[in-house]
User: Fold this.
Amino acid sequence: MKIIHDCLPDFNERPQNKIDTLVFHCSAHSAKNMIDVLRQKKLSTHYIVDLNGDIYQTVEDGKRAWHAGVSSWRGVQNINHTSIGIEISSPSLGQDLYDDKQIKSLLELSLMLIDKYKILPTNIVAHSDIAPTRKPDPGIAFPWKTLAEHGVGIWYNLEDARKVNSDNVAELLLKIGYDITDLAAAQYAFCRHFLPAVVKKEADIEELEKHPYPEDFVLPSDFLPVLQACCYSFTAES
Ligand SMILES: [Zn+2]
Assistant:
């Protein structure tokens, strides 16, 4: 795997020498533009997968990059402390299919990192999963199911829904890992990841970034069984 090195200056030390989470992002810029934008905003990421599949590393794995912001997963706050951030170039902000070359590179990079740091499938997340009120990325086109089939992250088998007794939505979301302080936002983030067909495309990318979830969203009828099946997969893995 060829990795192009280009340093971003804004990062700091990890509070503990621990890496246990992968966070996927997307931005509507090519890698080169993204590096400029991140530099201007005093942000950073460990890796960028460009439109043509080229992989850039901009912060060393051992350092704490500034990609996730205020975040929470599985009861842990400030995910930047222990995570590796991977940005993917996507002009539609993850709403149109990613290029196969990008997914191939992302898969190779993710599998290398999972193996190197022994990252659990339950800790492979979207930026929208860990910041549901603030972030829509990496979007409805992100191929979670395909990635899970290749050993990156978790998907579900609908038949497992009946093995879960609870129908308490908040409790199930919490068990998977979501912060449920804003339950509507957490439900929407769940749909964006596991039921992307019910999430509407937003033509205006700036609008999508400003308002990552609609307040009038009506849960689809298959929401509960999918949530139960997911909860089964997530708790079986941990
Ligand atoms: Zn992001």
About this structure: The mean pLDDT is 97. The chain has eight helices and ten strands. The helical segments are 31-41, 100-117, 127-130, 144-149, 169-176, 183-194, 205-210, 223-237. The radius of gyration is 17 Å.
